[in-house]
């Protein structure tokens, strides 16, 4: 297990850049009302499973968790799992283990079914 400083620098650089872009988008949205429009919602009028993710993340950033949950329940439930998965694989990359965790089919297929079902149910209600 060797710490690769070049990979660590790359990971830090990418994360700082993404953080700056996210915060910039947050303030752009907050003070101008600009936001990216969901094409599925725009053309069909239906909410896709991802509709509300931006507002959900912004609410989490502001520590308004109930509000975040109301925007997109599925994302709020899945965020901790994806964070753990992402952090593990990022640490694995920096330590040069090169054995990332793969999401097995017995997890990814039910997850896909849940996402599709969530998209259907949120439009029925």
What would you note in describing this structure?
The protein has 125 residues and is an all-alpha fold. The chain has one domain. It is built from 6 helices and no strands. It has helices at 5-32, 39-44, 53-61, 65-71, 73-94, 105-124. Helix 4 (65-71) crosses helix 5 (73-94). The longest helix is centred in the N-terminal third of the chain and has 28 residues, at 5-32. The protein is globular and about 50 Å long. The mean pLDDT is 92.
Order of helices and strands: HHHHHH
Major sheet details: none
In helices, the fraction of residues equals over 70%
Average pLDDT over all residues:
92
What is the total number of structural domains? 1
The total of helices stands at 6
Low-confidence stretches: none
Work out the number of β strands. Answer: 0
How is the secondary structure organized here?
Blueprint: H1 5-32, H2 39-44, H3 53-61, H4 65-71, H5 73-94, H6 105-124
Q: Which structural traits does this protein have?
A:
125 residues; mainly alpha; 6 helices
In brief:
The protein is mainly alpha-helical. The chain has helices at 5-32, 39-44, 53-61, 65-71, 73-94, 105-124. Helices cover 74% and strands 0% of the residues.
